[in-house]
Amino acid sequence: MITPRHLGMFIAAILCASQAPAQTPSGQPPSSAAAPAASWEFNLSVSGYIVPQGQSYVNPTFMADRGKLHLEGRYNYEAQRTGSLWGGYNFKVGEKVVLKATPMIGAVFGNVNGVAPGLELTVTRNKVELYSASEYVIDAATSAGNFLYTWTQLTYSPVEWFTAGYVVQRTRAYQTPLSVQRGLLVGFTHKKLQFITHVFDIGEASPTVVLSMGYTF
């Protein structure tokens, strides 16, 4: 079983690797024109899931990025009363069409225990953006617990402070008659704050509503 001590060692190893000084060729002094070290960027988001039949819950997520390094912590994402810690690598390509991708590996612990490879992907062109966060949980207890989670959304932002789009989700954190939920979203941004409302299963007798707030610093 994965323990908090193992998770701490996992994150510490990633941090040490990201902060190790670069080596210069033998006999050559360090360059005086070396690029400054990248600064940390943080994002904290909290999503409230209003789910039919008394399954409502809160899902906090914290992200920390420094250059190529990506760290992330989630709770109530893979399952309720379950946490996960992640380490990944950021890269970005393109100019008119910009692709940002972060392959990751995560440790899952709580009601579900295991490991999970994951990928966060963003493709942007002008005011249109495709975002997807997916992972495959490998349950340490039984292969029957293995599961593919995904959150994918396509959005359009006519102005900087407003976003609207279409969203698809597949999760086991709660149960509905539909294994894949589809819905609409609208979002508003004010400085470093973002507020988004998602409504899944529109037209069904009991839709699911997700209210999210994010802060970047």
Structural class: mainly beta
**How many beta-strand elements?**
13
Distance between the termini: 34 Å
Q: Strand order, biggest sheet?
A: 1-2-3-4-6-7-8-9-10-11-12-13
Strand fraction: over 45%
Q: What gyration radius follows from the Cα positions, in whole Å?
A: 19 Å
Helix content: under 10%
In short:
With 217 residues, this protein is mainly beta.
Structure characterization notes:
With 217 residues, the chain is mostly beta strands. It has a domain at 4-14 and 44-161. It contains 1 helix and 13 strands, in the order H-E-E-E-E-E-E-E-E-E-E-E-E-E. The chain has a 12-stranded antiparallel beta barrel with strand order 1-2-3-4-6-7-8-9-10-11-12-13. A hairpin with a 2-residue loop joins strand 11 (181-190) and strand 12 (193-200). The two termini are 34 Å apart.
How are the SSEs placed, and which strands pair?
Layout: H1 4-19, E1 40-50, E2 57-66, E3 69-75, E4 82-89, E5 91-93, E6 97-110, E7 114-125, E8 128-139, E9 147-159, E10 162-170, E11 181-190, E12 193-200, E13 208-216
Antiparallel strand pairs: 1-2, 1-13, 2-3, 3-4, 4-6, 5-6, 6-7, 7-8, 8-9, 9-10, 10-11, 11-12, 12-13
List keywords for this structure.
single chain, 217 residues, mainly beta, twelve-stranded antiparallel barrel, globular
